[in-house]
TrEMBL record, chain A:
<dbReference type="InterPro" id="IPR035969">
    <property type="entry name" value="Rab-GAP_TBC_sf"/>
</dbReference>
<feature type="compositionally biased region" description="Polar residues">
    <location>
        <begin position="23"/>
        <end position="37"/>
    </location>
</feature>
<protein>
    <recommendedName>
        <fullName>Rab-GAP TBC domain-containing protein</fullName>
    </recommendedName>
</protein>
<dbReference type="GO" id="GO:0005096">
    <property type="term" value="F:GTPase activator activity"/>
</dbReference>
<dbReference type="InterPro" id="IPR000195">
    <property type="entry name" value="Rab-GAP-TBC_dom"/>
</dbReference>
<feature type="domain" description="Rab-GAP TBC">
    <location>
        <begin position="135"/>
        <end position="357"/>
    </location>
</feature>
<dbReference type="Pfam" id="PF00566">
    <property type="entry name" value="RabGAP-TBC"/>
</dbReference>
<feature type="region of interest" description="Disordered">
    <location>
        <begin position="21"/>
        <end position="43"/>
    </location>
</feature>
<dbReference type="InterPro" id="IPR050302">
    <property type="entry name" value="Rab_GAP_TBC_domain"/>
</dbReference>
UniProtKB/TrEMBL annotation, chain B:
<keyword id="KW-0449">Lipoprotein</keyword>
<keyword id="KW-0342">GTP-binding</keyword>
<keyword id="KW-0472">Membrane</keyword>
<keyword id="KW-0636">Prenylation</keyword>
<dbReference type="GO" id="GO:0005774">
    <property type="term" value="C:vacuolar membrane"/>
</dbReference>
<dbReference type="GO" id="GO:0005525">
    <property type="term" value="F:GTP binding"/>
</dbReference>
<dbReference type="InterPro" id="IPR027417">
    <property type="entry name" value="P-loop_NTPase"/>
</dbReference>
<dbReference type="GO" id="GO:0015031">
    <property type="term" value="P:protein transport"/>
</dbReference>
<comment type="similarity">
    <text>Belongs to the small GTPase superfamily. Rab family.</text>
</comment>
Amino acid sequence: MFGIQPRDVSDDDFNPRRRRWSLWTTPPASMPTTSHTSRPRKGHANAYHMSVKFEDLCGFMVEGNVDDVNVLNEVRERIREQGRVWWALEASKGANWYLQPRISSNGGQGVISVTSLKLSVLTNTVTLRRLIRKGVPPALRPKVWLSVSGAAKKRSTVPETYYDELIRATEGKTTPATRQIDHDLPRTFPCHPWLNSEEGQASLRRVLVGYSFRDSEVGYCQGLNYVAALLLLVMKTEEDAFWMLAVLLENVLVSDCYTDTLSGCHVEQRVFKDLLAKKCPRYFFPPSIFMLVFLSENHAVIVNYIRFSKWYRIAAHLEAMGFDVSLVATEWFLCLFSKTLPSETTLRVWDVLFNEGAKVLFHVALAIFKMREDDLLRIQHIGDVIDVLQSTAHHLYEPDELLTFAFDKIGSMTTNTITKERKRHETVVMAELDQRTRRLGSLKMDA
Amino acid sequence: MASRRRTLLKVIILGDSGVGKTSLMNQYVNKKFSNQYKATIGADFLTKEVQFEDRLFTLQIWDTAGQERFQSLGVAFYRGADCCVLVYDVNSMKSFDNLNNWREEFLIQASPSDPDNFPFVLLGNKVDVDGGNSRVVSEKKAKAWCASKGNIPYFETSAKDGINVEEAFQCIVKNALKNEPEEELYMPDTVDVVGGNRGQGSSGCC
């Protein structure tokens, strides 16, 4: 069973060997001065404020409160239940049913033509989509991820020895990418015992260095260290982690997210900003809006209702404050939430990301804002906005809470719409980046 | 009793990856050093209440990602900065050579109203490493660079041992206030500082 230990405030460096699991009864060494909760928490009011260090579901040593530990225990139980659902389906549909052809919403990998569409394929696709949103059992993640993301297909197009040969070719070579990777290895989740070990860091190094040689335009970009590290923990083998990284950068995510000017990341931020500001589909309004449409001929009433709906107000409020979404979303989009959300919650986001594509990141980002909309409307300072969003995200130990918001309360957005939005912003971003390069050049000339 | 007025001071820390930006910030704010900081992506910030000339300020220190390609993301982070702290590692020539890039990138993206007089402070960090034997950038060289950029204040620091960190940040606060318009700074009858002074006079930077 899960245990907790009081946080020793004087000991910032965690020593994994000092793990003594005991339910703690003594008063805490410190009380957090601020706390942000996204919902009413269970447990004793005092216990909630107690800061503890504990091991999460992926083996990360993290700091949270007693309630986080309780939530995690509930999550762990639900993962077992979800596992039973998957095993039952294997029994009825046959082993590996989810590896069969399906209709993909993830940009071309494993897509079948509409003419060859069979009912069983359609059923499987729908079932799989629903199941994946509820979470892939940890034991099945490597197989399911490789399949639904298209990584398995990608790997099948090259000789089996590809990865080993790639790694052999990189041995002893030093590039700007390898230098940066070496800088970052000890700074990548040092709170995980294996990633903090020589073996873990050597493994992570091979995956990152290998990829930097595969794609010289990306080389290595900070942020990928966190993504690759978490992939390693899930996929178990370096080679599988490598192919997941490859399919992410080459197929799942928007292109140029990690290249030299991070232009893809700039584009995603702009699209996200627009979504936050403009995305007011009917879903956001309570049913009464429809009553208004029918009952009122006074359009101004409706327009005002829409204008002052909470969602619109959040974007306007943040804008007036001078808050730019990139202040939080840079880390979210480049690390795919791995540095922001608790590990199991991140993996649940990735389950859906690999199956449904990069728009999932927008759903999740919007959900984090939406969860705290009332607080955000009250806040007057940029720093407080960041604090609220970050601490909300750090405590989202309940993946279903986030995913329910992300998919049931945000409303749907099609990949086509997002693609159009990206194209629109791409032109502006490229022009701005060009201008920046020119200004830098002229400044150097002056000097 | 008059209410205590606070003013926000925004400070940006820039410099190559691994020079110790996060460590400097944490040493100053939390008086702690750890080998276990995660590499910063995007930006992070910490705040600290500081007292300067009998006024109380909230110092907001922004720590940024050090890899070069992150420079393009600076606009939102740099906006409204009152002082820019440039950091290099005295044991790495490359981190020193890149100071020009960081400074120029900041000036372009933050677009301060008076770029020639915008306050920068330079910190040469990691002076503790190897007892100073692995040092490759001399104090003289660093000071010459500072002189060429309009007499930027310079400090040699160790975030690990806490050397000169407090002094450097006192200077940073002082410089952050230098270019503030008078009316924003001067708040008569509203400042009522409780508690003793923390010895501000010896920053030695200006």
